[in-house]
């Protein structure tokens, strides 16, 4: 919000014309009335006591860093917006305050805030004229009719959909831009300005992203209020409904004793379990279990992912077939997916079965069939001497791994409906459990105590032996490995 208050025309030296003594009282009275009206309008918009006077509360609001779009309209003032759903954007230049990758991420995140609740999609281009041209500028800049005022004050401005400047979004380079809370969070300001670029005006709801004054929110949380969502959907509509298939037939049951997973990864203080189109989220310090559609977090990710892991740089890598995506927070980073060969895999490797990062050593283990590869997260290259056979490098685990993650120093390997708690230092299994013991089912369905190992697992000639504690039943699983079939090419 920027309330522009003028006191009449000025000459080249910045002085107001008085038009002589005669009529000056009339001009003064008219200007005073105009100023009083503008102040009252601003006070009403911000929910202040309407006095028409520049009291302390009004001055505080005026001094707060803000958006430079000068309007007090209602939502949808540019209906019907762009008139199409597939839009392009281009970052013309970058601020030196942040790395290019962090700027790319903040801009993409800011756009995805709106694509998550509408049919809108955004494609980045590096040349030519895009629908939304994004630039960092200072003071009076180019042919833009709006200008910046140095540090603090106006942070950015954007133009509503249309030709020429329509959609263009500018940020004040005199501000300190950041990806965290040290200065002005570029993601939050960008998301606000993109609201204007898509057709929204300001909101007087102080919880809304489109509230004109800068409010430092948690950038890891979804910033839109219902007011924002209602506004943008009044222009573009809501997300298209998914397939008409009944949800009951597609939602996996968390307490199914035969439950299997496609991929598992940690994410800060969470563990995420992927299955088909869904992902379960559990938190280390609570008993909450949430099941969501993968697309509700990351619309561009495919279903049926095959592997995932969290690297030491607070990013998640997700794999399907011979491609992988890199995620930070709820945003897939630009220029993904990329082929897995960029990580160092040879071309004959067509998919990853599982992955887990040992955060104490910064080494990531990739499981491909009966083979294990090791990747150095520091040098970002594959270690020499790999691949190795899973059965030799992780004794007791067996020939294949469906999913894996690390928790409190232990690896948890999943195969079928079983999971193996593995001590990587001692190189042995400490427990065998059902896959869903993390979900705290009301009926345990053979919980972890039923699958404890009471004697060391033995491997000889491809034979796995487990001792079942409760039933005193010795289960033999004899695995015949044909060298011609399983030998590494």
TrEMBL record:
This protein's GO CC annotations: extracellular matrix
Entry's Gene Ontology BP terms: collagen catabolic process; extracellular matrix organization; proteolysis
Required cofactor(s): Ca(2+); Zn(2+)
Active-site residues (renumbered): 193
Binding site for Zn(2+) 2: 67, 192, 196, 202, 210
Entry keywords, A to Z: Calcium, Disulfide bond, Extracellular matrix, Hydrolase, Metal-binding, Metalloprotease, Protease, Repeat, Secreted, Signal, Zinc, Zymogen
Residue intervals of the Peptidase metallopeptidase domain: 78-238
Binding site for Ca(2+) 1: 97, 175
Disulphide linkage map: 255-441
Motif Cysteine switch: where in chain: 65-72
Positions with a binding annotation for Ca(2+) 5: 264, 308, 355
Residues that coordinate or bind Ca(2+) 4: 262, 402
GO MF, one annotated term: metalloendopeptidase activity
Membrane-spanning residues: none
Binding site for Ca(2+) 2: 131, 166, 168
Database matches in CDD domains: HX, ZnMc_MMP
Family matches, as InterPro entries: Hemopexin-like_dom (IPR000585), Hemopexin-like_dom_sf (IPR036375), Hemopexin-like_repeat (IPR018487), Hemopexin_CS (IPR018486), M10A_MMP (IPR033739), MetalloPept_cat_dom_sf (IPR024079), Pept_M10_metallopeptidase (IPR001818), Pept_M10A (IPR021190)
Top-level taxon of origin: Eukaryota
Stored PROSITE patterns: CYSTEINE_SWITCH, HEMOPEXIN, HEMOPEXIN_2
UniProt keyword Amino-acid biosynthesis present: no
Binding site for Ca(2+) 3: 149-150, 172, 175
Hemopexin repeats: 252-301, 302-347, 349-397, 398-441
Membership in a protein family: Belongs to the peptidase M10A family.
Protein name per UniProt: Matrix metalloproteinase-27 isoform X2
Species name: Ursus maritimus
């Amino acid at each position: 919000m920027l309330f522009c208050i003028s006191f009449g025309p000025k000459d080249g030296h910045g002085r107001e014309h008085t038009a002589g003594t005669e009529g000056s009282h009339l001009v003064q009275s008219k200007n005073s009335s105009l100023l009083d009206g503008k102040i009252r309008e601003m006070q009403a918009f911000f929910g202040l006591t309407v006095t028409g006077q520049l009291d302390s509360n009004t001055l505080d609001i005026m001094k707060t860093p803000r958006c430079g779009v000068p309007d007090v309209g209602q939502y949808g003032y540019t209906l019907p917006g762009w008139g199409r759903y597939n839009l392009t954007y281009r970052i013309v230049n970058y601020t030196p305050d942040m790395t290019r990758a962090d700027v790319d991420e903040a801009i993409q995140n800011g756009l995805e805030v709106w694509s998550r609740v509408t049919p809108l999609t955004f494609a980045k281009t590096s040349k030519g004229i895009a629908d939304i041209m994004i630039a960092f500028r200072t003071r009076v800049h180019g042919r833009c009719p709006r200008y910046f005022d140095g540090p603090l004050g106006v942070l950015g401005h954007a133009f509503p959909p249309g030709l020429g400047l329509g959609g263009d979004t500018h940020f004040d380079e005199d501000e300190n831009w950041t990806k965290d809370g040290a200065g002005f969070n570029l993601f939050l300001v960008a998301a606000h300005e993109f609201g204007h670029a898509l057709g929204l005006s300001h909101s007087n709801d102080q919880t809304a992203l489109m509230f004109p004054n800068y409010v430092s929110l948690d950038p890891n949380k979804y910033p839109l209020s219902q007011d924002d969502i209602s506004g943008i959907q009044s222009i573009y509509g809501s997300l298209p409904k998914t397939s008409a298939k009944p949800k009951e037939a597609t939602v996996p049951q968390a307490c199914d004793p035969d439950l299997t997973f496609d991929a598992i990864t940690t994410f800060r203080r969470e563990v995420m379990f992927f299955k088909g189109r869904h992902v379960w989220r559990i938190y280390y310090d609570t008993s909450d279990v949430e099941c969501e559609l993968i697309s509700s977090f990351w619309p561009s990710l495919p279903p049926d992912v095959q592997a995932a892991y969290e690297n030491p740089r607070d990013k998640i890598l997700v794999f399907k077939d011979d491609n992988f995506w890199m995620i930070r927070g709820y945003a897939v980073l630009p220029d993904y997916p990329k082929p897995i060969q960029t990580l160092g895999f040879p071309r004959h490797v067509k998919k990853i079965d599982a992955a887990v990062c040992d955060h104490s050593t910064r080494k990531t283990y990739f499981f491909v069939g009966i083979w294990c590869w090791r990747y150095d997260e520091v040098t970002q290259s594959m270690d020499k001497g790999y691949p190795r056979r899973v059965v030799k490098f992780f004794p007791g685990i067996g020939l294949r791994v469906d999913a894996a993650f690390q928790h409190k120093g232990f690896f948890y390997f999943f195969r079928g409906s079983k999971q193996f708690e593995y001590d990587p230092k001692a190189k042995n299994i400490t427990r065998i459990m059902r896959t869903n013991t993390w979900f705290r089912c009301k009926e345990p369905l053979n919980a972890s105590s039923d699958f404890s190992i009471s004697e060391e697992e033995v491997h000889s000639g491809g034979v796995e032996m487990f001792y079942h504690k409760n039933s005193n039943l010795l289960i033999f699983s004899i695995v015949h490995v044909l060298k011609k079939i399983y030998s590494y090419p």
